[in-house]
Design goal:
- This protein is an alpha/beta fold.
- It contains 18 helices and twelve strands.
- The protein folds into two domains: about 5-225 and about 350-415, Rossmann fold, CATH 3.40.50; about 260-330, 2-Layer Sandwich (formyl-coa transferase, domain 3).
- It is about 35% helix and about 15% strand.
- The strands form three sheets. The chain has a seven-stranded mixed sheet with strand order 6-5-4-1-2-3-12, sandwiched between helices.
- Helix 2 crosses helix 8 (about 185-205) and helix 8 (about 185-205) crosses helix 9.
């Protein structure tokens, strides 16, 4: 097996072209979002999936403008630039197929609970003994060590345990803490996993050795507390507050306007221009607001004054005025509104596929802009098992008769016609 063969199976070009990634992650973002990043960077990502029960019918095309079922839409958001191979890892033959893939792979990325792959006979020690250059990355709730290592974890519980949720909320008495709207509990783990994999690939270029990565979602949440940790461990009591910024900047946070919310981030260098823009230059001489320390000491009065001033216009008008003045402030957008912003199109951050099953469907773009690899579009997410035969033939050299026999025994599976996009989803 050559790097060129693996590279030919990549869905897009990029600096990781020729790197083979085997994904064992189902639909959970802590895994499948991470492998999507690797696929966006040019890796050949093979998503290993369970064979379905029976022979599901192909997914029917949908006209442009018709909403996708939620499960299919979820798949499109996390699985572009990948291939799909259905392999039954609970069967001896399916397990043998996966082992043969691991012998030639660069990365095996899973988000199973610790011990699951060992019970299947596919633990990292065995795989790395067969392929010493293999990088095995496991993402789990609590990692492979510690008293909670075998417990399940979900985004909300990880956010709660990580400390960040304690300072996320309205700040009003008796209001509950708030989970961040995006699943940062899982996605944070995916980011750290990708960083670890890229570091391990770089190290392997010098040493020739693979690596085992143990990424815990709780560790990721703790790490993202970052600069708040030293003050908190030294006695600073952080609490949710509706307008106060982490640095003490004032005014800061969401404010109601005549219509809609407007979010300010006014550090001291912008205070004078903000007071003038809001029509209250007298605030600059007001002893309550003159310095940042004054504004912090009189936060309630400042917030009331700013809210009253913002009632003169709606959030869109304030957005126009703040942008023209070069002052940090932003209208709070919904997700569709955010992607309708003209800046988004110029940055290729809303991308479509033109696939008959998802005509008109668009996904978030790749924020990593590489000069050597100009953006040329995404490949549509694979249908269930769409690439099983190609993986067996092109990567493993299995002849057609053997591939068909494995399918007949349900050790592997691929659809006889069309694309099957209906998959179980975690959302």
């Amino acid at each position: 097996m050559t790097v060129e063969t693996i590279a030919r199976l990549a869905k897009v070009g990029g600096p990781l072209r020729g790197v083979l990634v085997l994904e064992l992650c189902g639909d959970e973002p802590s895994g499948t979002f991470g492998t999507q990043i690797l696929g966006d960077l040019g890796a050949t990502v093979v998503k290993i999936e369970r064979p379905p029960a029976g022979e599901p019918a192909p997914t029917a095309p949908r006209p442009a403008g018709e909403n996708l079922p939620r499960g299919i839409a979820y798949t499109f958001g996390l699985n572009r630039n990948k291939r799909s191979a259905c392999i039954d890892l609970k069967s001896a033959e399916g397990c043998a197929v996966f082992v043969d893939l691991a012998r030639i792979a660069d990365v095996v990325y899973d988000n199973y609970r610790p011990g699951t792959l060992d019970r299947l006979g596919l633990g990292h020690e065995r795989l790395r003994a067969l392929n010493p250059k293999l990088i095995c990355c496991s993402v789990s709730g609590f990692g492979k060590t510690g008293p909670w290592s075998d417990l399940p974890a979900y985004d909300a519980t990880i956010q709660a345990l990580g400390g960040g949720m304690s300072i996320t909320g309205t700040g009003r008495p008796d209001d509950p803490p708030v989970r961040w709207g995006n699943p940062i509990g899982g996605i944070g783990g995916a980011f750290y996993a990708v960083i670890g994999i890229l570091a391990a690939l770089h190290r392997r270029r010098r040493s020739g050795d693979g690596a085992a990565l143990d990424v815990a979602l709780l560790d990721a949440q703790l790490a993202m507390n970052a600069y708040r940790v030293p003050p908190a461990m030294s006695g600073t009591a952080y609490a949710p507050a509706p307008h106060r910024g982490g640095s003490g900047a004032m005014p800061y946070g969401p404010f109601r306007t005549k219509s809609g919310w407007f979010v300010l981030g006014i550090t001291k260098q912008f205070w004078a221009r903000t007071a003038e823009l809001l029509g209250h230059r007298e605030w600059l001489d007001d002893p309550r607001f003159r310095t940042e320390a004054d504004r912090q000491a009189n936060e309630d009065a400042l917030n009331e004054a700013v809210t009253a001033a913002l009632q003169a216009h709606d959030a869109a008008e304030w957005q126009r005025r703040f942008v023209a003045a070069g002052i940090p402030g932003a209208k709070m957008m919904t997700i569709p509104e955010a992607f309708a912003h003209p800046h988004v199109a110029l940055r290729d951050m809303l991308v479509g596929f033109g696939h008959p099953v998802a005509a008109g469907v668009k996904v978030a773009g790749n924020p990593i802009k590489l000069s050597a690899h100009p953006f040329a579009g995404f490949a549509v997410p694979p249908g269930l098992g769409a690439d099983t035969a190609a993986v067996l033939g092109d990567l493993l050299g299995r002849p057609e008769a053997e591939r068909q026999a494995l399918r007949d025994r349900r050790a592997v599976w691929w659809p006889r016609e069309g694309d099957v996009f209906e998959r179980p989803s975690v959302v």
